[in-house]
Amino acid sequence: MAPGSDLQILTNGALVDFSRDGVDLAVRHGVGRYPGLRSYRVVSVEMVPVAAPSLVEHLGMPELSDELTRWPQVHDADRKGWSLWFQAQGIDEIEVPRGPSFNDSSLLLSAVIAGQGAGLLPAAMVALDVNEGRLVKLAKPTHMETFAYYLVYPEEKHSNLKVSALRDWILGAAST
Questions:
Q1: Verdict on whether the full-model pTM lies above 0.85
Q2: Domain span at residue 98?
Q3: CATH no. for residue 69?
Q4: Which range among 8-12, 43-47, 55-59 shows the weakest confidence by mean pLDDT?
Q5: By CB count within 10 A, which of 4, 6, 52, 88 is most buried?
Q6: Total of domains in the chain
Q7: Which residues contact 173 (CB under 8 A, 6 or more apart)?
């Protein structure tokens, strides 16, 4: 990053409105395809299906991954996470995703803890909840390359020097 650059970092669960919010770049978790935005994969993480102990008690611990296709599910905003996870397990025939979806992973986590369904979340994010018994791991964590954190910005900002300098700095740091 260039010396003298003024970097302000804001965290928010809502999707940024680039035209209204005065934001140059954002980080989104998903599949990396966002209309009108340039998208660069920064990092992928291990994802793990989890559920509240009460739901596991009601439905029984799944022995095979395909059993989770019949469970109630809580989804990310794109509704792609579960489909990609099932494909990574070799399960291609699944129904259209149903159930609540959230654009904020902490809200998704709260819904899962409340027993609204099984959720697919970053393993590191749920580790404490699993260790303390608020959640149960339903399968082993899976590293999913396409379901990752992406740096995004509007197409028209691609030649902006501030944007390109920060993009290059972030991507360079992520690759080490």
A1: no
A2: 45-144
A3: 3.40.190.10
A4: 8-12
A5: 52
A6: 1
A7: none
